Amino acid sequence: MKIKTRLYLSTFISIAGIIGIAAFSLVTILMVKDKITVLTSQSTPLQVKTVQFQQAVEKLSADLLQLGLSNDLQDVKQISAAITRERENLDRINAELNSLRKNPMETAIFSDLHAQVLKATDEKFKSMAVFKEEASKVNGAMARVDKSLVSLKEIVGTLVLATSRRAATATQTLETRLKEKNTSPEILESVQDYRNEVDNDLVMHKRINSLNDIVYAIGVDAKLLDAKARMIMLSETPADLDRASAEVQAIQARIIRNVNQAGKGIKEIKNSGFVDDMVATINGAVASAGGSLRTISASQRKVLENMALVDNSVKKVKAVALEQGLKSEANVQSTAQEQQKFVTVVGERVDLFKKLLIGVSLAVVAAALLIGITTMVCINRSLSRMTQAFTSIAETGDFTQSVAIKRNDEFGVTSQAFNKLIESFTRIISAVSGSSSKLSHSSHGLTGAAQEIHAAIGSQSASISQVAAASMEMAQTVTLISTNTARIAGSAQDAGAIAAQGAEIVARTGREVQEIAAAVEESTATMHSLHDHSQQVGEIVDLIVEITDQTNLLALNAAIEAARAGEHGRGFAVVADEVRKLATSTADATVDITRRIKAIQDDTQSAVKAMQKCLEKVERGVAHSAQAGDSLRQIVGSVSLLQEMTSEISTATGQLAESSDEISADIVAIERSSAETVQAAAYIATESDNLSRLAVDLREEISRYTCPEGSLTVEPVLRQGTAQRWQPIAGGSGTQPGQLSPPVSPMKLISA
User: Fold this and answer.
1) Top-level CATH class of 475-679?
2) Is the distance from CB of 524 to CB of 608 less than 8 angstroms?
């Protein structure tokens, strides 16, 4: 059996084993996939849908609670729409759960709860609208009450004023009578009449004060009634609502009682139809406010009833959410138990298929090992024979040996091909031996010629090196001259630039000094104007002094008149004294101002003189700046001429330096080429010598091999110089067996 057949058989068994293992694995995978499909298509979706159902219930419950607590109509609409979508989502999830497991959840209760909460919320907003409308009415009624109370207060104020006037009139009358009546009975009669009038006025004052207190109490009760309206709306329990309603009724009754009492009291003092109108207006406004408050109370009672319904609905929502959560948890636990059963069954079947897979794998491995061992023994035996033959030929160089393997397999074919390769090597060695003789003679002549060339080129290279050194020195000298000239030109250019900058700076300084002169002139004019204004201020101070004197005179006259008036002029005397003090203070301040203005005038005059001197110095500075500018412009012209001359010198030396550099570069290039030629000649000589040695070594190596016709016979010759030559044994123009072939040209060897 051939090696290829054995390998094919081993491969077939291995592939068959792999296919069998794959089949068992596929069956196992399909079984596991079936169980996993059951888990993923029923158990896991059931858990996921249960969790989704529980989350939807929690979200729906939270939105229902938010709907019950919302106070914005737009938010109510949005939350209600969201609850509708969540109910639809909840019904969809419940239907999916029902398809996975015949145990539907109760979801209709959420629809009822939604309707109840929405109804309660609508009632709350309606009640709020009623409250706003009725509260507006109450505010209008209270505004009318306040307006009427203002009118009543004005009437009471009028009564107070009339009483005060009557008392004043009675007092004046009494004083007149006391002056006119000199007898005691008449005086006593007048005093008695005055006392009676005073008693009547006191009684009237008490009644008016009582009316004023009643009006004030009505105003307080009106504000309290407005506040109780808000307390009714903010009631949280029916008891609070009843208590607030009772307080409103009591306040309303108290306002009506006080209004009637105030109207009656005012009419007793001053009968007027206007008072009746005010009382009727207040009673009507209070009655209107009472009706609105009763409407608000009824609306708030409905709101409380609806809020009680909402609270009950919220409790139901929490209870339903808790119940649905418990059901969902029970469903999840049941699904987890079923999943555990599936996992146990899958584990048992996987263990069974694992044992079968191990058995099939062991059988396949045993068959593959049997075929592999037999193939390995056969290959090892043939390789040993071939290795022995190859080693012997390599160590002895005897190409007469051959590999003897008489087999029909691949090793037999390989041994025959190797024997043919040995025959080809024998023919090649014979040809290489003849070529090496020719190579030895040619390399000897090439070495001598290369040595002569090397000596001649070395002498030439030394002369070129001397010329290159002299050229380099000259180029460096010219470069130094060019560099110094360029530096001189640069310095001249810098000096010109600096001089130009100086001229520009001097010109700018002149302009700035002129600007300073103009500014000084303006300052001088300003100081003159300030001096004139200070003179005007002095005139104003003189006017103030005159006014002060007049004020003192006026205060003196006022004091004299006050002294004449006696007790009645005491207050006027105080005023006159204060005016005198003010005039004295004004006089003192005027003296101080005069002193300061005088100092300012003196300082202003000094500043005018200083500014005049500064102006003269600035004008002299302008003249000096102009002279400096002219001098710097002359320097700039001289430096420019020097710069042109140094630029021409620098250009000429630069061109000379470039020419010297080019000559030096050419000489250096010639020197470099000469050196490279010397190196090439030395390299040729060295390589020729190496080639001669290689030819000798090649003949020595070829002499080690034995060809089938007989051993190659070579005759060594003495080495000449550094190489040893080999020559073939002369045998005519042709070659005989055992002799080297005649010399062959290198081109022929390359083409061969």
Assistant:
1) mainly alpha
2) yes
Radius of gyration (C-alpha) of the chain in whole angstroms: 69
Q: Looking up tokens 């070659």, which residue turns up? A: 735
Instruction: Give the tokens for residue 633.
Output: 């412009």
Residue bearing the bigger pLDDT, 98 or 39: 98
Please spell the DSSP secondary structure of 462-482, one letter per residue: HHHHHHHHHHHHHHHHHHHHH
Report CA 194 to chain centroid distance, whole Å: 93
Query: How far apart (Å, rounded) are the C-alpha atoms in residues 296 and 284?
Result: 18
C-beta separation of 26 from 67 below 8 A: no
- pLDDT at position 21 is 73
Residue whose C-alpha is closest to residue 704's, from 440, 439, 432:
432
**Domain-wise residue ranges, the chain:** 3-116+321-362, 132-311, 475-679
**How does pLDDT run across 738-749, given as a tens digit for each residue?**
333 333 333 333
Q: What is the mean pLDDT of residues 319-328?
A: 67
Calculated CA dihedral for residues 535, 539, 545, 547, nearest 10 degrees: -150
Write out pLDDT tens, residues 204-224.
Answer: 667 777 777 777 777 787 777
Provide DSSP, 44-108: HHHHHHHHHHHHHHHHHHHHHHHHHH---HHHHHHHHHHHHHHHHHHHHHHHHHHHHSS-----H
Amino acid at residue number 443? S
Given this model, what pLDDT does residue 434 score? 67
Distance CA 226, CA 585 (A): 61
Helix (H) or strand (E) run with residue 717 in it: strand 715-720
Q: Which two tokens stand for residue 28?
A: 């196992």
Half-sphere exposure of 730 (CA within 13 A, CB side): 0
Map tokens 């009358």 to a residue: 173
Q: CA-CA distance, 359 to 353, in Å (whole number)? A: 10
Could you count the other beta carbons within 10 Å of the beta carbon of residue 193? 14
- Which of 4-38 are b and which e, b meaning 16 or more Cβ less than 10 Å from the residue's Cβ? eebeebbeebbeebeebbeebeeebeebeeebeeb
